[in-house]
């Protein structure tokens, strides 16, 4: 296909604004997939992606479109992850295309993720086509939303296309706009090969499948290629395009997007953003701005049943095969036994991996408190990265500690603004900006990431009844008064509940934690002290009194089935308990104790 007849684009949208539905409709209206093979959310392939309505890996589809001018076009859509945790991947895949559809739900308006993703698109020099979706709904307000796009994002929305991805209305106009308004790709077929590694995924039959965008040159089957960042070389075995099923082709030329396989063993061997060239005739300069994505949130994953450790190892290794940004190492906790310390791109990433282990591998997990990466500056001048609060050195050797900060953008209806400001303030936030767009406020806060990883998002949703949207980026590190708080149950430290806290908030957190644990730990035959401490100094304390009676005693011996049920319940409860010295702590306690309210 000549360059003039190729259009490469992505879709930018806030979650639930209709990105997947619109992609389905584009695929359907162009007969890319036979009607009988059409299923909903074509591009979201994993169950977990469909269920949570998020895309985790970049997906792509090649669409053949005959425009109203009678010409035949190839349209390549890259569906990028829509979540902040994967923003580096988003920014990479944006650089593989020339334009974006900016989809905004016309019953809702611009939201935080719309903004974050649209800025990435603007950064990548995209031509933007605003699309106002869900016009079939009575609450649709085209004028208001178009005005908001102009005001908040600052782009011309006069040509915005009203559509209903549900009914198909306006989809033809979107296809025509892609051809008319998005620029064709540029590139030189005779120049040395220069291709971008956009993403990669593991396929059980083919091994690692690499998504590539050709900038210059031509890539053919049998070619010997070199990854410029890793230095690895491979022989290309298969070349193809996604329709969206994998379809083999002979070659990919400039401007084209497709896949290759080359006996690459694991996704870890490929780096998103790397430049692929020919071993024989290398291109001179790699594509700019390559950086590996690094985990920012860490937590321990332990099997509830310690006999499942090997199965957990197996599950984690398999998941890591397909996810280079997920890191893990073995951890041995005095309280929880053997498990893994795992690193994630963010909280959602953590939840996705944890869900998959529990669901796909059927292993019940204890997840320890999520922690960010601290920089610990020692008095002897050395600096360490702290991934696990349990490893925090004794304070007498520590000079100071730095923590990561974020810039959070929150869009919220006016009526909830007060609650949002209070929440941010409570979490040690510093207000940077507050502006209005119609009846909604846009608040920008500088916040410590460690205050966000616990339950910030849940709290935000609950104080705003779900009407706020939130997005963030990490901005850097800053020194603050941070200490390790330990929790002792029956005088034994429970390392899984250790956390780094700000000194000023330690008493409050410690008290809340002790009160919670008092409710969560069942009574034993003896009195149990529950304490929070900083460096040996107790800052909060509760006492769980001893059990007096057998739980079935209150049944007065009469109702046998009820008695049985109670005993069974007790037994089932036991299974999810862990032994800490003489005390049994239910698994649920670990999760609940870490939530604040
Ligand atoms: P995504 O998160 O941006 O991929 O959004 P989805 O495509 O999954 O859509 C979110 C929800 O909105 C789904 O329940 C869709 O059925 C619904 N939806 C999408 N487009 C339209 C539309 O044009 N009209 C109506 N009424 N519902 C829509
Ligand atoms: Mg979707």
Descriptive tags:
binds magnesium ion; hydrolase; alpha+beta; binds guanosine-5'-diphosphate; 597 residues; six-stranded mixed sheet
Strand order of the largest sheet: 11-10-16-7-8-15-12-13
What is the rounded Rg? 27 Å
Q: What is the count of β-strands?
A: 34
Structural class: alpha+beta
Hetero groups in this structure are: guanosine-5'-diphosphate, magnesium ion
Calculate the mean pLDDT score and round it: 86
Helicity level, as a percent range? 25-40%
Low-confidence parts: none
| N-to-C span | 58 Å
Query: Largest sheet, described in full?
Result: 8 strands, antiparallel
Describe the structure.
This protein has 597 residues and is of the alpha+beta class. The chain contains 14 helices and 34 strands. 45% of the residues are buried. The mean pLDDT is 86. It binds guanosine-5'-diphosphate and magnesium ion (MG). The site of guanosine-5'-diphosphate (GDP) has 16 residues, from helix 1. Keywords: Cell membrane, Elongation factor, GTP-binding, Hydrolase, Membrane, Nucleotide-binding, Protein biosynthesis. Pfam families: EFG_C (PF00679), GTP_EFTU (PF00009), GTP_EFTU_D2 (PF03144), LepA_C (PF06421). Its main location: membrane. It is a peripheral membrane protein.
């Amino acid at each position: 296909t000549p360059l003039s007849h190729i259009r490469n684009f992505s879709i930018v949208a806030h979650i639930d604004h209709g990105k997947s539905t619109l992609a389905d409709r584009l695929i359907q209206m162009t007969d890319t997939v036979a009607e009988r093979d059409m299923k909903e959310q074509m591009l979201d392939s994993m169950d977990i992606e469909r269920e949570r309505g998020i895309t985790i890996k970049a997906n792509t589809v090649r669409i053949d479109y005959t425009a109203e001018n009678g010409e035949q076009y190839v349209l390549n859509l890259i569906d990028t992850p829509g979540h902040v945790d994967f923003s580096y991947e988003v920014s990479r895949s944006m650089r593989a295309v020339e334009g974006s559809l900016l989809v905004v739900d016309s019953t809702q308006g611009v939201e935080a993720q719309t903004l974050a993703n649209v800025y990435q698109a603007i950064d990548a020099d995209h031509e933007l086509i605003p699309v106002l979706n869900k016009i079939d709904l009575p609450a649709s307000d085209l004028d208001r939303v178009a005005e908001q796009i102009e005001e908040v994002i600052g782009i011309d929305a006069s040509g915005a296309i009203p559509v209903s991805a549900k009914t198909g209305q306006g989809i033809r106009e979107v296809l025509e706009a892609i051809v008319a308004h998005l620029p064709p790709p540029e590139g030189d077929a005779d120049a040395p090969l220069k291709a971008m590694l956009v993403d990669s995924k593991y396929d059980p039959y083919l091994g690692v499948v690499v998504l590539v965008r050709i900038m210059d040159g031509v890539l053919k089957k049998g070619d010997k290629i070199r990854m410029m960042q890793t230095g690895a070389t491979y022989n290309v075995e298969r070349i193809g395009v996604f329709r969206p099923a994998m379809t083999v082709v002979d070659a990919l030329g400039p401007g084209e997007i497709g896949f290759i396989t080359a006996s690459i063993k694991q996704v870890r061997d490929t780096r998103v953003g790397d430049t692929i060239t020919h071993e024989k005739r290398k291109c001179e300069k790699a594509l700019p701005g390559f950086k590996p994505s690094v985990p920012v949130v860490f937590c321990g994953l332990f099997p509830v049943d310690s006999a499942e450790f090997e199965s957990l190892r197996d599950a984690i290794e398999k998941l890591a095969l397909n996810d280079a940004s997920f890191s893990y190492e073995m951890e041995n906790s005095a309280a929880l036994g053997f498990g893994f310390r795992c690193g994630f791109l963010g909280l959602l990433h953590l939840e996705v991996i944890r869900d998959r282990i529990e669901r796909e591998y059927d292993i019940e997990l204890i997840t320890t408190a999520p922690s960010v990466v601290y920089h610990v500056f020692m008095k002897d001048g050395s600096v360490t990265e702290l991934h696990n609060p349990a490893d925090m050195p004794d304070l007498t050797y520590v000079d100071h500690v730095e923590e990561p900060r974020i810039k959070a953008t929150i869009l919220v209806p006016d009526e909830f603004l007060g609650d949002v400001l209070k929440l941010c303030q409570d979490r040690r936030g510093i207000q940077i900006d507050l502006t209005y767009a119609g009846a909604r406020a846009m608040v920008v806060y500088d916040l410590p990431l460690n205050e966000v990883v616990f339950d910030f998002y849940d709290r935000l949703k609950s104080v705003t009844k779900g009407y706020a949207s939130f997005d963030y980026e990490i901005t850097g590190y800053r020194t603050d008064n941070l200490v390790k708080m330990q929790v002792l149950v029956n005088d034994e430290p429970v390392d899984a509940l250790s956390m780094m806290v700000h000194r000023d908030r330690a008493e409050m957190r410690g008290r809340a934690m002790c009160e919670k644990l008092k409710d969560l730990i069942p009574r034993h035959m003896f009195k149990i002290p529950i304490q929070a401490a900083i460096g040996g100094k107790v800052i909060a304390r509760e006492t769980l009194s001893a059990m007096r009676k057998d739980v079935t005693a209150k049944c007065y011996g009469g109702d046998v089935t009820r008695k049985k049920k109670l005993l069974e319940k007790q037994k089932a409860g036991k299974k999810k308990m862990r032994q800490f010295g003489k005390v049994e702590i239910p698994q649920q306690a670990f999760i609940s104790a870490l939530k604040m309210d």
